[in-house]
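Worked problem 6 (solution included).
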Amino acid sequence: MQGNRDKVLLTTAVINPAETVRHSLSLVNSITLRDFGRRLLQPASFTRLRRNMGLLKEATSQPAQQMLNILNFEYRAIEKAAKNHPATVALLRSTERVPAPAAVVLVSRLNHDAEAVMVTTEKLSKRGFSRLPLLTT
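Solution. The predicted structure is:
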């Protein structure tokens, strides 16, 4: 599957590993780098976010509850932003016709799409898909 910042451009059926490597290299070579601005914060870790929310749910102090509200807001905002993101659409479309277990090759700089990729790959891993990241620089 190939996509860009706005939409999904190409998906492939299940192909053999050598063909996957060829498609991936071709995709990496055709990537046009764009400046999406400098990322000021690290992408949120869903695992850490959920763990912290679980710990704060047990706390009774007002500051802890306020922090829990902030983390809940962050969690919902990330999920909402990821829902219709082109990376989410591309990853979900790539698994529509493929039964798990299977591997999804992910080519990304993980800049503007980091949260969408994180949310979606976590959901895919729960369905039995593995992620093979090819990070570009």
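Discussion: The mean pLDDT is 81.
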